[in-house]
């Protein structure tokens, strides 16, 4: 494929499975994330969302299945695949004893970002971090730390962005602002985003498509604005609660 040509998908997952002894945490998941697309990964606590994301990040080894990032196989072409990826989550804060600028610079050097100084300035501007640039990350509020984590996640201009509850600690205005920035990032950079959230209002606003996962399996997939009515529910939250309570009825429906 000629350089610069986009592959059909940012992420393709086939038959992905992860077991811990008897427990099947992820049970044969197939999914795709296309460019310019924000896909919500929804499911109750313990459904397997973080396990799935950790396998896509190459942190956890799958028990079975394949992961392709921008067409590169995560096992056979690991470096090429991971170079196209980045990640942000509240449980993975940046080192607290370094300043915002130092953190972004160190990650920029690790990623081999070209014109790093200019890139850092534009991200500091974009994420409204000017006031905190010389503050140690450990003293920032969780909302401020989230903005730094998102700026870090965009340093290498990933084609696949994995976000585990990116707005969980943000006030409603900041969360709205971050959603708008991520939407713009996906559209302008032709990036695919896989986004986990327990906030159904947010998911309906920002996601192009959602996947409901329960007990490690994808039960439903579709447009978050249409899915509730298709399944006889008023809202995405109603649908979520119903699936979480009665996952077996949806397994039969999709079988
Ligand atoms: N290292 C591990 N060893 C054993 N079991 C694990 C391990 N990691 C996760 N699990 C189990 O795998 C299942 C899926 O966990 P996972 O963290 O992926 O869920 P989740 O959907 O991200 O949940 P939450 O919404 O609460 O973050 C859970 O039952 C969990 O207890």
From TrEMBL:
Which GO molecular-function terms appear in the entry?
ATP binding; ATP hydrolysis activity
- The record places domain ABC transporter at 11-240
What domain of life does the UniProt record list for this protein's source?
Bacteria
Query: Aminoacyl-tRNA synthetase among the record's keywords?
Result: no
Pfam families named among the record's database cross-references = ABC_tran (PF00005)
Q: What are the alphabetically sorted keywords of the record?
A: ATP-binding, Nodulation, Nucleotide-binding, Transport
State the Gene3D superfamilies in the record.
P-loop containing nucleotide triphosphate hydrolases
Xref: InterPro entries = AAA+_ATPase, ABC_transporter-like_ATP-bd, ABC_transporter-like_CS, ABC_transporter_ATP-binding, P-loop_NTPase
CDD domains (alphabetical):
ABC_DR_subfamily_A (cd03230)
Q: Which family does it belong to?
A: Belongs to the ABC transporter superfamily.
- The identity of this protein, by name, is ABC transporter ATP-binding protein
- Please tell me the species this chain comes from: Acidihalobacter aeolianus
């Amino acid at each position: 494929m000629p350089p610069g040509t986009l592959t059909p998908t940012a992420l393709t997952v086939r038959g992905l499975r992860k077991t811990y002894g008897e427990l099947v945490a992820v049970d044969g998941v197939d999914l795709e994330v296309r460019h310019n697309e924000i896909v919500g990964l929804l499911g109750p606590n313990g459904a397997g969302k973080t396990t799935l994301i950790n396998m896509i990040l190459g942190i956890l080894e799958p028990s079975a299945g394949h992961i392709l990032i921008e067409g590169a196989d995560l096992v056979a072409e690991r470096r090429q695949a991971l170079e196209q990826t980045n990640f942000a989550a509240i449980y993975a804060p940046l080192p607290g004893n370094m300043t915002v600028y130092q953190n972004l610079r160190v990650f920029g050097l690790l990623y081999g970002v070209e014109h790093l100084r200019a890139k850092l300035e534009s991200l500091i501007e974009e994420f409204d971090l000017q006031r905190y640039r010389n503050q140690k990350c450990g003293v920032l509020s969780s909302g401020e730390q989230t903005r730094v984590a998102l700026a870090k996640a965009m340093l290498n201009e990933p084609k696949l962005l994995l976000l585990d509850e990116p707005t969980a600690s943000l006030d409603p205005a900041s969360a709205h602002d971050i959603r708008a920035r991520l939407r713009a990032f996906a559209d302008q950079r032709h990036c695919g985003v896989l986004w986990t959230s327990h906030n159904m209002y947010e998911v309906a606003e920002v996601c192009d498509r959602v996947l409901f996962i329960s007990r490690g399996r994808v039960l439903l997939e579709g447009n978050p604005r249409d899915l509730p009515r298709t399944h006889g529910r008023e809202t995405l939250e109603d649908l979520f609660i119903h699936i979480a309570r009665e996952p077996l009825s949806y397994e039969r429906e999709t079988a």
